[in-house]
Write a structure and sequence with these properties.
The longest helix has 37 residues. Helix 17 packs across helix 19, helix 20 packs across helix 23 and helix 30 packs across helix 31. The protein has 1401 residues and is mainly alpha-helical. It is globular. The chain contains 52 helices and 23 strands. GO terms for molecular function: DNA-directed RNA polymerase activity; mitochondrial promoter sequence-specific DNA binding.
């Protein structure tokens, strides 16, 4: 099958394309069209190689004509910037209709991706019957689990449940049928002996259960054709195929059937030939014959050099802890363990690629297997030494094996009970059997041995790290075990699917075929669905159908934990004073404790086990993902990319961020994520190697056990203080104990650090002679991260120093200069001019030579660097280049970094057009690099000097004492939304180091830090006026969005109010509704109106990636388990938003999304130009020779981004996305507007009690305002007149344009509050604002009369928080959602940064 897959991926014959152009018509030859479009996505690597050769050749031509450049010449601006804008109307002979992925696509407000609120409503509830129900996603999850274990009868019942829930034409129904057909067809392919019987079952399902009531889709027809191809032959097969294909043709699905991902290319070709009446044995035109099986290969040897013989000194610890790493690296140390496919009918290149992939798959699959082997070997070793299981001296690893072998029979008994329960689901058996009916199909998918091992691994791993001292919450332990079992189950399912080598082509085919027309097919209505036939909620179900439901994970994990508590025992010595005898005791105990009024279940480890863990720490990389020895799988879907078998999400997310998942899936299907995919694939396919020179030095330093270059010492010399002489001096003894505790913590921290570095050394040793790759994914903002956690280029200095590019490039005429500059940068001499940095390297050439020749026995100059290991790597590279015959021809592998200057402020300065700020962050050209931290420090000093002249005591104390370091952290984090409290704490920490406490409480460091924090913010306002205005504008927008109720929500409220619908849907019986209503606050008056605040802040990056802030308030759900009731946070799409987090998180997250866009654009363009590119957020890496080209790319990408009106576009998107919404605001109760609103409410008895947003009066007023807005928007003039005649709180609010109308009386107000009101009133004249929104957002919580409290695990509730009052009362009201005007932009011209050599340097 792998051979067929390899042949299938060869590109189509060019002779076929050019000799028979008429065959390329999609109507005439859809197969060839599919091959071309599929091959197009693979042609990138070929094009990349061509570009690299072309670029390399061009560089070579220049090398013969130019001498070495000076530092001033290194960044000579190019008169011809690299184009980032795709112009479809460009008249050029080389014009291509396919735009480059590095071009920003034109943005159109009418094409904003929006999800219907219905997609974010809770899934339709289904009656829980015989262990199946809860909601639609769980039905699909249970269906998938049943099909995996062959329970077709139960699967059929589930399909009937789904069919009863939805309309027959709904995509959920046909998908359920297709899942069953797919499972049955795969059984046909796997079990030849039962095919005659099984094919009848497949045909019966199609003809009787599906076709009469459910319209088949293309995948259905493809599956039926697969079944016929598998079982039948000759004329009978051809007749069957023609029948299904004719049915597909009649349904208009013929081409889609042939393009279905259910078929391999060879099968699709066969179908087309059969349909056209051709011979099935005809040779396809353009198929290159593969070498015959057994043909000799020219690739004679595949015994790679390894680091197997390199000895890395292990951290001194008992047992097999570290050896887990070594075992996991077995296939790296022993490449011959994976046989090379010499005899396969493949080309040499295909054999090499297949072998590399097989090795990678072996590495991914060895984790649990090697852990079990490790435990068994350790246990046998102890038995060989005469140490029996009854003896206390057993190692920790041997105990794990003992517990695993004791737990395994208990798991087998449970699986037997599950099988009996599923066989007779109606026989009763109480709650225990009810649970088994629910989790049974999931548990059956895993072997007992793996279930037992994973339970022991995860329980010990969590308890040893999180609960060794005081125990861990049962809910936390079960969560870890449940997630691990779920992950293992999905991994095994993926391995099974991959073994069938089915190609997933349909999505890429559809995307390629409609890529140019799809972007204009979105209605102006703005609310779009991800595909023509799928609802978004169904697409989420499709992605999550392999996952275990939360309740199943919790129940299974609690069951296994209870069994582990029973069987995990060990020997402990018990003394009765005179004698000591060994006794068997339980290793864990479970108890219920009360903390802060809550009842919590806790799991504790036996104190003797805790002591054993201190001596034998459980260290390992079980479950961790290693770098890949084969190129990562290209990203094509939300879960499709990166590792071959391990399921990885495209977007790293919290469990509560299903909205982000929905938006991402929709964007993928719409084709908006293509550039993001391309950027991730560029970064993931960068080949790396271990720098052997640095590794040799690091190995020597490591094995010495000394503390060298941030390598933790083996035996840290931290002496303990002497014990106090007077044992009765309690204060002295207390101080001594505290000091001893600090030393113990420090020693423990160093030991943990050395253990972590031990893993890095072992991994580096294993990969010493390998080329490897780091697959990447991203967070919800679009920031990119490598998936392998231990050794990657985003690690600490020691990890970065070990890594070099696998592919080198000649230094050329500029590379040597950049090597020297890079040396100065990593040493810490990075604030000087480029020329000075170059001279720094020249000046220290003797030190460089000594560092290379005698790194540990010489003068150790490299150890003085800020990044010593990266400095040493540069020393080696520079020395080797200078010692070569021609430095220009020296092939360099070292990544050279270009770092931004406070990158967040660079984006803010460009957005706000701040000329002063732009100069301080190097957006303006300059002779030397500007330093924003020094600039702010100088401004703060000026403010302090003026205050000192005015006799300010704080200023007088601070004169001459302020340093750059005091302000640096606050300036750095200002762009990320640091609050005043946070800034004060940052400054306070620095002041404690430079100003000793003199005992004056009026001028202590706490008060001084608050004074300085104010001055820092004032200085930033001076430098970045426009940026600060934008930051505030972003906060105002987030505050309004997070208190908004959308039009669809409002329409649903109206229907509930009139009795047209309820929360449950039309299919639910009264019995089911009563069952669901057992939960608190589900519908009507029981639901808090504040719970309707579900609008997250959503925006679209310039790369068209949707970003959804994940901050929601998750409710707690009680789950019954065998051990106790567990209170678990189960996130739902309709959870109310966390208002304060939405407000505070938006400004920094928005800037993060912009710097991620800049990096992605740069990565794609560099790849197109043939450059190797990697990044650490705002630090971009490439070869020394390519730095000038990369710098042009970075500047042009930034200019291209900020040449657009990013904030104006965001404002337009907000207006479109939240159109017709109504949000909550407040006004001062004693202001003229407030009095008018109170008077209006007094005239309406039903509304006069609207003192809180959760009152019935508030609901009535909200719906009344919704009605008024509908009338005002009506096309009927009479209805518009009715709307204009209505008087509501919002109409009063909107009619008041005078700032004084929003101010409270002077006697009760204060100037600061009135200033806020006046400023807001200016906005109200244009829109609807009456107060500062940050203050208003905080008032929302204070206005809530009765927030629902989260129950504890035992059901106890917390006490009600103390209500806070403000001196000037405010009243809430509902007004139409509008947004403040975009702040005016300054006069800075962003194109000037093209001439700034220090923008990135």
């Amino acid at each position: 099958m792998l051979a067929r897959a390899a042949r299938r991926h060869r590109p189509p014959s060019k002779s076929l394309q050019f000799s028979f152009p008429e065959l390329l018509s999609r109507r005439i030859c859809p197969i060839q069209t599919r091959c071309i479009t599929t091959a197009a996505s693979r042609s990138r690597s070929i094009l990349g190689d061509h570009l690299r050769l072309r670029h390399s050749g061009a560089a070579g031509a220049r090398q013969d004509t130019r001498p070495l450049a000076t530092a001033a010449e290194v960044l000579t601006p190019s008169p011809d910037p690299i184009p980032f804008l795709y112009r479809p109307n460009a008249q050029s002979p080389s014009y291509s209709p396919y735009p480059s992925k590095s071009n920003l696509r034109q943005w159109d407000a009418s094409q904003v991706l929006m999800l219907q609120d219905s997609a974010m409503n809770p899934p339709q509830a289904v009656w829980n019957f015989l262990g199946v129900g809860a909601d639609v996603p769980e039905l699909f999850q249970n269906l998938h689990a049943c099909l995996r274990v062959g329970r077709y009868e139960r699967a059929g019942n589930l399909v009937k449940r789904i069919q009863e829930t939805f309309h027959p034409s709904a995509p959920e129904v046909i998908e359920a049928h297709n899942m069953c057909l797919r499972a049955m067809v795969e059984d046909l392919e796997d079990h030849e002996d039962t095919r005659p019987r099984d094919i009848l079952a497949v045909q019966k399902w199609f003809e009787r259960d599906l076709k009469p009531s459910v319209p088949p889709n293309a995948d259905t027809f493809a599956l039926m054709c697969r079944a016929a191809l598998t079982v039948q032959s000759g004329l009978r097969r051809d007749r069957t195929l023609r029948r299904y294909l004719s049915m597909a043709k009649a349904a208009g699905l013929f081409e889609d059937t042939l393009a279905s991902e259910e078929l391999e290319d060879s099968e699709a070709h066969t179908l087309e030939r059969v349909y056209q009446g051709l011979s099935a044995d005809r040779l396809l035109i353009g198929d290159d014959p593969a070498p015959a099986a057994g043909a000799p290969s020219t690739l004679t040897s595949h015994r790679l050099a390894t680091g197997k013989d390199v000895q890395v000194k292990s951290v001194d610890q008992k047992g097999e802890g570290l050896r887990t790493v070594v075992k996991s690296l077995y296939y790296l140390d022993n490449p011959e363990a994976v046989p090379f496919p010499h005899d396969e009918a493949l080309t040499n290149k295909e054999k090499e690629k297949k072998w590399t992939r097989l090795r990678q798959e072996a590495i991914e699959e060895s984790v649990v297997k090697e852990a079990l082997m490790q435990w068994r070997v350790e246990n046998e070793h102890m038995l060989d030494m005469g140490i029996s299981p009854a003896l206390k001296s057993k190692t920790m690893t041997a105990l794990l094996w003992q517990w695993h072998k004791a737990l395994e029979p208990a798991v087998k008994e449970e699986l037997k009970a599950v099988k009996e329960a599923l066989a007779k689901p109606r026989q009763g058996g109480g709650e225990e059997n009810s649970h088994r009916l629910r989790y049974g199909p999931y548990l059956e998918a895993l072997p007992a041995e793996h279930i037992s091992a994973i339970t022991v691994i995860e329980a010990m791993k969590f308890l040893a790290t999180q609960g060794a001292a005081s125990g861990a919450k049962l809910v936390s332990v079960t969560s870890k075990i449940g997630k691990a079992l779920d992950s293992e189950s999905r991994l095994r399912a993926r391995q099974k699917n991959n073994s069938k080598t089915r190609s997933g082509r349909r999505q890429s085919v559809a995307r390629n075929m409609t890529g140019l027309t799809r972007q204009t097919s979105v209605d102006a209505g703005m609310s779009v669905r991800p595909s023509l036939e799928s609802d978004l909620a169904h697409r989420l179900v499709d992605v999550e159908k392999e996952e275990w439901p939360t309740e199943v994970k919790t129940q299974v994990a609690a069951l296994l934990m209870s069994k582990l508590l029973d069987v995990a025992k060990f020997t402990v010595d018990k003394s009765d004073g005179d004698t000591t005898e060994p006794q068997i005791e339980h290793a864990f105990r479970h108890e219920t404790v009360y903390k802060n009024g809550r009842r919590n279940g806790m799991v504790h480890i036996h104190p003797e086990i805790v002591e054993k863990l201190k001596r034998e720490p459980l260290r390992g990389i079980l479950g961790a993902r290693l770098p890949m020895v084969a190129e990562p799988k290209a990203w094509t879907g939300f879960k499709d990319g990166g590792y071959f078998h391990y399921p990885s999400n495209l977007v790293r997310q919290k469990e509560s961020s299903d909205t982000q998942k929905l938006y991402t899936i929709a964007a993928i299907e719409k084709g908006d994520m293509d550039q993001v995919f391309q950027g991730l694939n560029v970064l993931g396919t960068v080949p790396w190697r271990i720098n052997q020179n640095v590794f040799n030095v690091m190995l020597e330093a490591w094995n010495s056990g000394e503390e060298i270059a941030k390598i933790a010492p083996d035996n840290p010399e931290i002496p303990y203080p002497p014990e106090p002489e007077d044992p009765t001096d309690r204060d002295a003894r207390k101080a001594w104990l505290q000091r001893v505790s600090v030393i113990n913590n420090e020693r423990s921290g160093l030991h943990s650090q050395r253990c972590f570095q031990n893993f890095q050394m072992e991994i580096a040793r294993a990969y010493l002679h390998e080329v490897f790759y780091c697959p990447h994914n991203l967070d919800f903002r679009g920031r990119v991260y490598p998936i392998p956690p231990y050794l990657n280029h985003m690690g600490a200095d020691n990890a970065r120093g070990l890594l070099i590019f696998a592919n080198g490039k000649e230094l050329g005429h500029t590379g040597l200069k950049w090597l020297k500059i890079h040396l100065a940068n990593v040493f810490g001499f990075d604030k000087a001019s480029l020329e000075d940095r170059e001279n720094f390297a020249i000046k220290h050439m003797d030190d460089i030579t000594d560092s290379v020749s005698n790194p540990l026995s010489g003068n150790r100059w490299w150890l003085k660097a800020e990044d010593p290991w990266q400095c040493l790597a540069t020393c080696f590279e520079l020395k080797n280049a200078l010692n070569s015959e021609n430095p220009e021809k020296f092939v360099s592998h070292l990544p050279i970094h270009q770092d931004g200057t406070c990158n967040g402020l660079q984006h803010y300065a460009a957005l706000g057009g701040d000329s002063l700020g732009a100069r301080q962050v190097n957006l303006e050209p300059g002779d030397k690099p500007a330093d924003i931290y020094t600039a702010v420090a100088e401004l703060v000093k000026e403010h302090i000097a003026k205050d000192a002249e005015a006799k300010n005591p704080m200023a007088r104390k601070l004169v001459g004492k302020l340093t750059r370091k005091v302000v640096k952290q606050t300036v750095m984090t200002n762009v990320y939304g640091v609050t005043f409290v946070g800034a004060r704490a940052q400054v306070h920490k620095q002041l404690d180091e430079i100003i000793p406490d003199d005992g004056d409480p009026a001028l202590d460091n706490y008060k001084l830090s608050a004074y300085i924090a104010h001055k820092i913010f004032a200085s930033l306002d001076t430098l970045f006026t426009g940026a600060q205005n934008i930051q505030r504008w972003l906060g105002h927008c987030a505050a309004r969005i997070s208190t908004a109720i959308t039009q669809e929500q409002l329409e649903l409220m109206v229907k509930k109010e009139t009795g047209e619908t309820d929360d449950y849907g039309p299919k639910m019986s009264t019995k089911i509704k009563k069952f669901v209503r057992k939960g608190k606050g589900i519908n009507g008056a029981g639901k808090l109106l504040s719970d309707h605040f579900r609008s997250c802040v959503v925006w679209t990056t310039p790369l068209k990636m949707p970003v959804v802030q994940p901050y929601r308030t998750t409710r707690v759900r009680q789950i019954r388990t065998t051990m106790q009731d567990i209170a678990l946070r189960e996130p739902q799409l309709n959870d109310p938003v966390a208002k304060r987090k939405q407000l505070q998180g938006f400004p920094p997250n928005f800037i993060h999304s912009l710097d991620a866009t800049h990096m992605m654009l740069s990565a794609i363009k560099c790849s197109e130009l043939g450059l190797t590119f990697s990044s650490v957020h705002d630090s971009f890496w490439t070869h020394a020779a390519d730095i000038p080209v990369m710098n042009r790319v970075l500047r042009d990408a930034f200019v291209r981004m900020h040449s657009e009106d990013i904030i104006g576009r965001l404002a337009a998107e907000f207006k479109a996305r939240y159109k017709k919404s109504i949000y909550l605001t407040h006004v001062y109760a004693r202001s003229p507007v407030g009095k008018a609103i109170k008077k209006l409410r007094a005239s309406k008895p039903a509304e006069q009690n609207m003192r809180a947003i959760n009152s019935k009066a508030s609901m009535k007023e909200l719906l009344e305002e919704h009605k008024r807005q509908k009338l005002l928007r009506s096309k009927d003039p009479e209805e518009r007149k009715k709307g204009e005649a209505m008087v509501t709180a919002a109409s009063i609010f909107q009619a008041a344009g005078d700032a004084e109308a929003f101010e409270p009386p002077m006697s009760l107000g204060n100037s600061e509050e009135q200033g806020d009101a006046a400023a807001a009133a200016d906005e109200a004249g244009q829109s609807d604002e009456a107060l500062d929104m940050e203050a208003s957002a905080s008032d929302i919580d204070e206005a809530v009369d009765s927030e629902s409290k989260e129950p504890s695990e035992g059901g106890a509730k917390t006490s009600k928080p103390t209500k806070q009052f403000k001196t000037e009362p405010k009243i809430p009201l509902w007004v139409p959602l509008t947004f403040p005007d975009v702040p005016a932009k300054g006069d800075f011209d962003v194109t000037r940064l093209r001439d700034s050599q220090y923008f990135f340097s």
